[in-house]
Amino acid sequence: MRNSHKSRMIAYWLLTALAFVVGGAMVAFYAPTESTMGIIQKIFYLHLPSAINTFVAFLVVFIASIGYLIGRKAWWDDLAAAAAKVGVLLCSIVLLTGMMWAKGAWGTWWTWSPRLTFSLLLWLLYVVYLLTRSSVDSRQRKAMISAVYGIVAFLDVPLVYLSARLLPDVHPASVAVAPQMELTLAVCFIPVTLLNIGIIAAGYVRATRAREHQHSETATSPRPMNLQRLGGAART
Fold first, then answer.
1. Dist. CA 215–CA 65, nearest whole Å
2. CATH number of 7-208
């Protein structure tokens, strides 16, 4: 059974790697170079899929946090923690690629536009989420605090998405792309999404197994001797 699971995981990651190779080849050789921004525009094929998958990862945190508050099941907390870690990773990629794109397109690494500001805030919120988890020892208290925080932090996600549409921003609300660009972008979504799902699943399984192993060790560990009772038994 374990070998079968391992084989499926190997196949999954090989498929993910293949999808990255195909997507990278299409970005390099198939998608045309944008006439205004030039080669730097091709960061778009990593930037946008990473941004959408960041939202998906934090949506999983949001749903899992609600699930924990309703059911008080530890596996909901395991899922939220795993998704938060991947969300922070993807959000870091979004910020880094966005800075590179900004330097090439606008001549500056950073500008305090609404979308960039809310994106940085989103990253900070979930970094604090992870730091908060690591600072609380009690498992139940950690899960409760994280669930409430995970629900509140998600409020920034729609702000990031809607900022360029509702507020004046250097980011365009939408981008017109050629058919080759549109197809390349669609293909590039596949490996990033597979990566997102795969790392969340791996983190969830690892956390669940660690918790179950700790629980089994606690259940099978010998109980401490009650010296007072032993002393009383000896006196009688």
1. 22
2. 1.20.120
